[in-house]
Specification:
By secondary structure, the chain is an alpha+beta fold. It folds into four domains: 10-42, no CATH class; 46-184, Orthogonal Bundle (Butyryl-Coa Dehydrogenase, subunit A, domain 1), CATH 1.10.540.10; 188-305, Butyryl-CoA Dehydrogenase, subunit A, domain 2, CATH 2.40.110.10; 312-451, Butyryl-CoA Dehydrogenase, subunit A, domain 3, CATH 1.20.140. The chain has helices spanning 23-27, 32-38, 45-51, 55-72, 76-80, 92-103, 127-141, 143-161, 165-180, 203-208, 304-340, 352-376, 383-408, 419-429, 436-446, 448-463; strands spanning 187-190, 214-218, 221-232, 239-246, 255-260, 266-271, 282-293, 297-298, 342-343, 346-347. It is globular and about 85 Å long. The chain starts with 22 loop residues before the first helix and ends with a helix.
Length: 464
């Protein structure tokens, strides 16, 4: 007769929680003052983490998870398997989800009500914190629909950081109100060009890059020409923030232009057939003498580089949180599999080598989340912290997804097990918002003054 694998009281290899040798039972026998330090009730880790947040963020995290559970998770597999859509088209379930997100205020939450939809109390915390909670919860349900909703914030961010009240009230507020009526008004962020990916996100590379998208001064504004590629949501956006150099100048002249998608000369060439995050189109955009009036220049001429770097410093924190979401999804799928799959008459979870693997996955995911939350708690996004969180957490996501696939064995390749999808979705996070190699260099760049001072001090000591 096979060993009884588990019962209502304990797993094989562990004593029941009621046993005198269990920490939970042992702590209950300590003096009350000691119990206040070490005793704790069983609680779902997600609930315990949520309870540690300030009240406004706690409410937000619960609301985001409820939305993901209702509108994203049930359609995740079907949307991921949908045939590659033409530019501007969405899988039906993704379209329904996007409209629900718009009505729920998830496309208008970068401004407080009544200008947008966010709880004004959230603005006592950094914008990155709310965004990180959002990307983790949605990524844990599905990467593609997460990006479909969250890439929009990247397009909105330059307008907010430019602090141009005219643009905010003339463009953003009406767009947010349309979204709240259930008519999604999407913004996109366009920096990448066919000849420059992360070069356009790092100063040393930009110093030698010849801009491919240029803006020529014309009466009343600028005429933009060039191409942008891999633009998330660029095929469904009503407005695209396009970064272009001024004609005849280098990247120091980079300027941000808010381009309406209906503008003559603006065209979506195609969307890429991607490995993961399939619900969100990665669009190639062509601009052929697209006229942009002066009042749609974001932040003024030659301030595009500053806006670009500022947006990336903020957005790399929620991208790190995407990695946490994918690691969480893979871990949850692996735990579910190990509780229902048997080997030798016992569920996999009964084997201690499986428990050791799951413990590592849980620890790595929790550590990554802690790194994200620590960076997000700062009122200002520090480049070294944002970039370090981005590369570390997204690398961790791939590591955790790989561990999950190893645990599932041949089952890992099955679409309905979710693990291979989490792996494919997570892989993209190592590339966008600057490759992880570029983000590693950004950490060193942010410490450059201190490192040079250390070299100088060391040189002086050597001479003396």
């Amino acid at each position: 007769m096979p060993e009884r694998p588990a019962d209502a009281e304990h797993l094989p290899g562990h004593v029941p929680a009621q046993s005198p040798l269990s920490p939970r039972a042992a702590f209950a026998r300590l003096p009350r003052i000691s119990q206040s330090i070490v005793q704790y009730a069983p609680l779902d880790p997600w609930e315990r983490d949520t309870a540690s947040l300030p009240a406004s963020l706690r409410r937000l995290r619960r609301r985001l998870r409820a939305f993901a559970d209702e509108h994203i998770a049930p359609a995740a597999l079907a949307v991921d398997a949908y045939p590659h859509a033409a530019p501007g088209e969405l899988p039906p379930d993704a379209h329904v989800m996007l409209r629900a997100a718009a009505r729920a205020g998830l496309l208008s939450d970068l401004l407080p009500a009544p200008l947008g939809s966010a709880d004004p109390r959230l603005f006592f915390h950094s914008l990155s914190f709310a965004a990180a909670l959002k990307t983790e919860e949605f990524a844990a349900a599905d990467g593609g629909m997460m990006l479909l909703v969250c890439a929009h914030s990247l397009g909105v961010a330059p307008v907010l950081l430019a602090a141009d009240l005219g643009l905010i009230f003339r463009v953003l507020v009406p767009a947010f109100r349309r979204s709240l009526r259930g008519e999604p008004h999407v913004f996109a962020f366009a920096i990448t060009e066919p000849a420059a990916g992360s070069d356009a996100e790092e100063g040393h590379g930009a110093a030698t890059y010849k801009p491919g998208t240029v803006a020529k001064r014309v009466p009343g504004g600028y005429a933009l020409s060039g191409r942008k590629c891999y633009i998330s949501g660029g095929d469904i956006a009503q407005h695209v923030v396009v970064f272009a150099a001024l004609a005849g100048e280098d990247m120091t002249s980079w300027t941000a232009f808010l381009v309406p998608a209906q503008a003559p000369g603006f065209r979506v060439v195609r969307t890429e057939l991607k490995m993961g995050m399939r619900a969100s189109g990665a669009a190639e955009l062509q601009l052929d003498e697209v006229f942009v009036p002066d009042n749609l220049v974001v932040g003024g001429a030659r301030n595009g580089w500053a806006l670009n770097r500022a947006v990336l410093n903020m957005s790399r924190i929620p991208v790190a949180a995407m990695g946490v979401g994918f690691a969480r999804a893979a871990t949850d799928a692996a735990i579910d599999f190990c509780c229902r799959q048997t080997l030798g008459g016992k569920p996999l979870i009964a084997y201690q080598d499986v428990q050791l693997e799951l413990a590592d996955m849980i620890a790595e995911t929790s550590a990554a989340r802690a790194m994200v939350w620590a960076a997000a708690r700062r009122p200002q996004a520090l480049q070294r912290e944002a970039s370090a969180a981005k590369f570390h957490c997204t690398d961790t996501a791939l590591s955790v997804c790989t561990r999950a696939m190893d645990l599932l064995g041949n089952h890992a390749l099955l679409h309905h097990e979710h693990v291979e999808k989490a792996y494919r979705d997570a892989r993209l996070t190592q590339i966008f918002e600057g490759t992880n190699q570029i983000n590693r260099l950004a950490v060193v760049e942010d410490l450059q003054e201190q490192l040079l001072a250390q070299i100088t001090a060391q040189s002086a000591r050597s001479k003396s």
